[in-house]
Write a sequence for this structure.
C-alpha cells in the first residue's frame, strides 16, 4: 500500500487514500468504520481472504493460518497518539502486519501490560487467543493489515468478542 502517513493530517484524508488503494488492488470493502475514537477500519470481503493473505502475509501458508473456514481480513487505521483498548479475545487469534506508519504494540500473557515495541512497515506480529494486546498510534497515522483467525468454527468471532481490561475512551 503506497501511503505516506507523515503527510496526512485528517481522518478523512487517510481513509480516502486507503479506500483508493484498496480499490486499486481490487479488494471489495464490505464495511468501513471511521467513527472509532482511535481511528477505524475497513473490512474486506471474506471471499478475498486468500488473496488478502497472499498480498499482506506472503510468508504464511494458508493452511497454517486458516484454523477454521473464516479469516476476516481487515485494514486497521490508527490515529496519531491514540491507543486501542488493552484487550483480548475468547474466539480469535490475530495476525497483524504494519503497512504504513510506525506503530507501538504491547502484548502480554497476563493482564499486566508489557513493554511497548515499535513496529515499522513490513513488521509482523501474531497474537494467540487470550493474549493481551494493544495497538498504539505514535507520531503519524498507522495502517495495519489484520487477519482474524477464528478459533471456534461454530461461533466465529465478531466485534463483540473483546474483553477490555483498560480503555482510554471509557468503553
Amino acid at each position: 500500500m503506497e501511503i505516506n502517513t507523515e503527510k496526512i493530517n485528517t481522518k478523512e484524508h487517510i481513509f480516502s487514500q486507503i479506500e483508493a488503494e484498496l480499490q486499486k488492488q481490487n479488494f471489495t470493502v464490505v464495511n468501513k468504520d471511521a467513527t472509532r475514537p482511535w481511528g477505524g477500519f475497513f473490512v474486506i470481503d471474506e471471499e478475498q481472504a486468500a488473496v488478502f493473505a497472499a498480498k499482506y502475509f506472503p510468508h504464511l501458508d494458508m493452511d497454517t493460518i486458516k484454523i477454521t473456514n473464516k479469516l476476516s481480513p481487515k485494514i486497521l487505521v490508527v490515529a496519531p497518539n491514540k491507543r486501542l483498548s488493552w484487550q483480548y479475545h475468547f474466539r480469535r487469534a490475530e495476525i497483524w502486519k504494519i503497512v504504513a506508519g510506525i506503530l507501538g504494540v504491547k502484548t502480554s500473557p497476563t493482564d499486566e501490560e508489557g513493554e511497548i515495541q515499535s513496529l515499522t512497515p513490513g513488521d509482523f506480529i501474531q497474537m494467540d487467543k487470550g493474549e493481551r494486546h494493544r495497538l498504539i498510534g505514535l507520531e503519524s497515522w498507522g495502517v495495519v493489515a489484520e487477519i482474524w483467525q477464528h478459533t471456534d468454527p461454530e461461533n466465529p468471532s465478531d466485534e463483540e468478542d473483546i474483553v477490555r481490561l483498560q480503555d482510554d475512551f471509557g468503553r
User: Anything to note?
Assistant: Helices lie at 11-24, 49-56, 62-65. Residues 11-24 form the longest helix (14 residues).
